[in-house]
Amino acid sequence: MMLWWRSEEQRAHPDAQPVEKFPDLVEEGSRAIRSAIARRVHGYTPEWRAGAGGGGGADAGVALVKVFGEQAAPVFSQANRLADKYRREQLRIAGVLGRGPSVARVMVVFSLLENAQDSVLIAAGTQLIAPAADGQGQVVFETSRAVHATPAKLALFVGEIGSRGAQLQPNEVTAASPLLTFGPRPQPGSALWLGFSGPLPFPKLAIHLDLVFPDALQRSVRFGAPVGSDEPMLAWEVLTGRGLVPADVYVDETGALRQSGIVEVGTNTGWDPLPNPVLPADPPSPALRWLRVSLRHGRYEVVPRLATARVNAVPADGVETVRDEVLEPVEELGETNTRRFRTSRTPVLSGTVRIVIDAPDPADIFDVAPTIAGGQQTQWTEVPTLATSRPYDRHFELDETTGIITFGDGVDGAAVPAGFRQVQAPSYCTGGGRATAVVGSAGFIPRGTVPFLAAVDNPFPAIGGADTESVDALVRRGPDLLRAGNRAVTVVDVEALALGAPGVDRVVALAGLDTDGTRRPGQLTLVVVGASKDSGPPIPTTQTLDAVAQLVADSRHPLVPLGAHVVIRAPRFVTVELYITARFDPEADQSVLALEVVAAANAYLDPVGGGDDGQGWPLGGVINYRRLVAAIAGVGGVTSVRRVGIMVAGRNTPPCHDADLPAFYLPSPGHHQVIPLVGGE
Question: What does the alpha-carbon distance between residue 301 and residue 298 come to, in Å, rounded to a whole number?
Answer without folding.
Answer: 10
